[in-house]
Amino acid sequence: MAKPNHDDYFIVKAHENGVNVIGLTRGKDTRFHHSEKLDKGEVMVVQFTEHTSAVKVRGKAEIITPFGTVETEKGQP
Questions:
Q1: Which of 26, 30, 40, 44 is an S-S bond match for 53, by CB 3.0 to 4.6 Å?
Q2: What's the number of CA atoms in the CB half-sphere (13 Å) around residue 74?
Q3: Structure-model confidence comparison of residues 13 and 75, the more confident one
Q4: Nearest Cα to Cα of residue 63 among 72, 54, 50, 55
Q5: Of 68, 54, 67, 55, nearest to 20 (Cα)?
Q6: Would you say the C-alpha torsion 4, 9, 10, 16 has a positive or negative sign?
Q7: What is the pTM of this model?
């Protein structure tokens, strides 16, 4: 099994109030294990760890990674 790279950081910048950043676990069953709520203009620096294998961002935000920048899209009401 490959050792996780703990140097993988990225940034989530909220473009509206109430953006959720949700950490998902590693292992056989993927589960939510941590959640943060950001308000407009707030920035969170995120790191993958031995417990976090994925992150879900809900709400209007900019995600800056070593691979480039992506913005979330607002879903249809």
A1: 26
A2: 8
A3: 13
A4: 72
A5: 55
A6: positive
A7: 0.80
- State which CATH number among 2.70.98.70, 2.130.10.10, 3.30.565.10, 2.60.40.50 fits the domain covering 9-71: 2.60.40.50
For the stretch 12-26, pLDDT in tens is 999 999 999 999 887
* Residue 74, number of CB atoms within 10 A of its CB: 9
By C-alpha distance, which of 14, 16, 74 is closest to 46?
14
Residue 34 CA, chain-centre distance (Å), reads 10
Q: What residues contact 60, with CB distance under 8 A and at least 6 apart?
A: 14, 15, 16, 19, 71, 72, 74
